[in-house]
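Thread: quick sanity check before group meeting

JM: Hey all, I'm pulling together slides for Thursday and realized we never actually wrote out the predicted structure for the chain we discussed last week. Dropping the sequence here so it's in one place. If anyone has concerns about the input, flag it before I start.
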Amino acid sequence: MSNPSIKAPALPRLVLGIEDYGKLMAIASSVTGPTADVADQLIIELDRARIVAQAKLPEDAVRMGSIVTFTTNDAQQRQLQLVYPGEADINAGKVSVLTPIGAALIGLRQGQTIPWSSRDGRDLVLTVVEVRQEA
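JM (edit): ok, ran it. Output follows.
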């Protein structure tokens, strides 16, 4: 039996531009097969985001094309660029939004923390250290 007085940490507030939201919802809604579970997670994240005009998106918000530096509670620091599935290239540091880390990062802002399950099944927590927008 779980203890009702112990609450899971609140998920951070997300913010997305309307253009990214529309494209990502269309992509995630059309996914079938082995990545359907990640697409479902992305839809959950999209559904809880505050949607704003693309031009009103804060500079430190993770959006498509953002270069993100983050740390994880397993003492790793990583940097990647968040891209659409067809642009992914792990050797170039370009990670698809249809990966567990991509779905976790979209809409976060610098300083925010979120729980995340890695592809190898580990439950981690990541914190966004820096967000840069591609020039």
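AS: nice. The chain has three helices and seven strands. Helices lie at 18-29, 36-47, 100-105.
JM: adding both to the slides.
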